[in-house]
Design goal:
It is built from 12 helices and 10 strands. By secondary structure, the protein is an alpha/beta fold. The structure holds D-glutamic acid.
């Protein structure tokens, strides 16, 4: 589909199954502090990881449609499971640029690996979708070893990112990857940047860790710059809006604070398919 003319002042729409995508939003803010953002966490239906991929696809398209209706200038699918579910068709569906987390992360891992042995960890949905495998298969010299790590999300959300339990669980999940002699480990889930220390401890200092938050932010920067869509410096303070689909917006704020140290003033409760907020009506950060 051709790209629709949208104002560079419009916000970037960022979507995740819950709070994890705030790691991506944070990485975007680090590089592009002048951009406005609408962040939607599908907290009513989180986690996506254990769900059938067709169901995740339906949820993701619903929310992305709503973000486009709110007038965003770019969509960022800040969730690995959702990216895996809509990787093949999201770009054709929308007339604004769509950035997902898998492509940029794979490209970075491809340029980093020296021995061609790459490890991938993610949710059950991401690993079973084989979306990463499809992209890595473009390079016949790369051998991918994957592991689903279903307990990691719950550990991170409980604030457990270090200590014997985390190390024990990580050692179990990563044993086949270490045995395969990987030199690069792809952190294919929004929550895994919080486990960097523990993962490093398990795989050792010589394995490069590639994380989807930073790679995705790099891609957002590149696309906005290349298309001349950066928000002009004279358009005032950027505005940030946080939306959650679940009723417990206080829990969203508490988790965001615990995980990221982000103090969020307000989270708006929204229902998918019914968002009717005029573009530009954002609350100041
Ligand atoms: N955001 C998800 C991902 O990156 C992790 C949390 C979930 O399972 O919903 O895959």
């Amino acid at each position: 589909m051709s790209t629709r003319e949208v104002s560079p002042e419009a916000p970037i729409g960022v979507f995740d199954s819950g709070v994890g995508g705030l790691t991506v939003a944070r990485a975007i803010r680090d590089q592009l502090p002048g951009e406005s953002m609408i962040y939607v966490g599908d907290t009513a239906r989180t986690p996506y990881g254990p769900r059938p991929i067709a169901e995740v696809r339906r949820f993701a398209l619903e929310i992305l449609d709503d973000l486009v209706a709110q007038g965003v200038k770019m969509l960022v699918i800040a969730c690995n499971t959702a990216s895996a579910a809509v990787l093949r068709d999201a770009r054709e569906r929308y007339d604004v640029p769509v950035i997902e987390v898998i492509g940029p992360t794979v490209r970075s891992a491809m340029s980093i690996t020296r021995n061609g042995r790459v490890g991938l960890i993610g949710t059950q949905g991401t690993i079973q979708s084989r979306a990463y495998d499809d992209l890595f298969s473009m390079r016949s010299d790369i051998e991918l070893t994957s592991a689903a790590c279903p307990r990691f999300v719950e550990l991170v959300e409980a604030g457990e990112t270090s200590g014997p339990v985390v190390i024990d669980v990580a050692e179990g999940y990563l044993a086949p990857l270490v045995a395969a002699g990987i030199d690069t480990l792809v952190l294919g889930c929004t929550h895994y940047p919080f486990l960097r220390g523990a993962l490093r401890q398990v795989v050792g200092p010589d394995v490069a860790l590639v994380s989807s938050d930073i790679e995705t932010a790099n891609a957002v920067y590149e696309v906005l710059t290349a298309r001349g869509m950066l928000r002009p410096a004279d358009s005032g303070d950027p505005v940030l809006r946080y939306e959650a689909t679940g009723p417990d917006t206080a829990e969203f704020k508490a988790l965001a604070k615990r995980m990221l140290g982000i103090g969020i003033d307000a989270v708006d409760r929204v229902q998918t398919g019914t968002i009717a907020i005029p573009p530009g009506a954002f609350r100041a950060p």
